[in-house]
Amino acid sequence: MSGLQRVFASPIRGGDTVTIGPNWFGSVMGTGILANAAVTLPWVPQVSVIFARVVWTLSVAALAVLLVAYIVQLKRHGGVVREQLNHPVMSQFFGAPPMAMLTVSAGAVLVGIDFIGATAALWIAWVLFFVGTVLGFAVAVLVPFRLFTRIKVAQDAAFGGWLMPIVPPMLSAASGALLIPHTPAGELRLLLYYVGYSMFGFSLIASFIIITLIWHRLAHFGTIDTVRVPSLWIVLGPLGQSITAIGILGTSAVLVVSPAAAAWLNELVVAYGLPVFGFIVFWSALAILMTLRARRRGMPFALTWWSFTFPVGTCVTATSQLALHTGLVTLQITAVAAFIGLLIAWVFVAFQTTRGAYAGDLLRARLPDTPPATKE
Fold this sequence. Notes:
The chain has helices at 3-9, 26-38, 46-76, 78-86, 96-116, 118-149, 168-179, 187-221, 236-252, 259-296, 310-326, 329-359. By secondary structure, it is mostly helical. Helix 3 packs across helix 4, helix 7 runs antiparallel to helix 8 and helix 9 (236-252) runs antiparallel to helix 10. The chain is globular and about 50 Å long.
């Protein structure tokens, strides 16, 4: 019996085994961002366009399969979702499903319009944008609320996964900005534009708070275990995505605000993006060193390895935006080099995930060892 068949045929035993968790949607995020990054590079040969179409189609298919599988699992084994929501680690990954939707939505605009036609592509983009934005905001509020009021966490519990629930609004800001040219002029377009900046700020401020907590944990408790070390790369996600979002918003400003305001918002892209890009380079160096250290200590493969893809992908799109707004050839070369690294990481992680899913090991994985506990 294959791994996928076991998802639907095997019962949950003992309450400590999951079939499909929300962290599985990280594979859709990592695949979708690969397509988006390929068509936003400073140099986009035809082979990149063809490659992006194939990968985006794969992300659409993966999203559909996972959504159906998760809904079936919810109906047959409703206790699974309850256990995941009450778990201090797994509950954080409920930010992955809306981010997967928003990543595919952005790809529908960037890749799909010239591939499947504007009507079909925009229909997909708008539906996934709306559902992903609503679900993403709900997750961004409810998961921290449960963390604050119900789930008991240890002093050393902060990890990169804490960023997952609060990053979806940042993707909504970028995906919404891509839809501005396809929105009727007037109140709706203006609302979409300004809501994008609001979601950008909401997610960015929350991300800075959590990154500070992660730094505190690393300084006082170290990396704790090797399994969660890849989640340190998640820190790059909101940072890279914030540059991407503000870059697209800056480019779209000419369609919404006055020429003077549009010029200022375009300048803001560089004023904000370059300092944050500096921190991205700094954190990337730290993450590489800690990952190599964990690998030497026997870091096993897990779904957390998808953290090597989506966050890096947002850094590729961020670098492409900065290259566009500054005209620096160095940034153009950097974007291409980062994309090559992203592609290598995606191929390796996708292969390992496919092999683990077919064998059933990943689909029958246990919840992390951290025991769920509730506050009084």
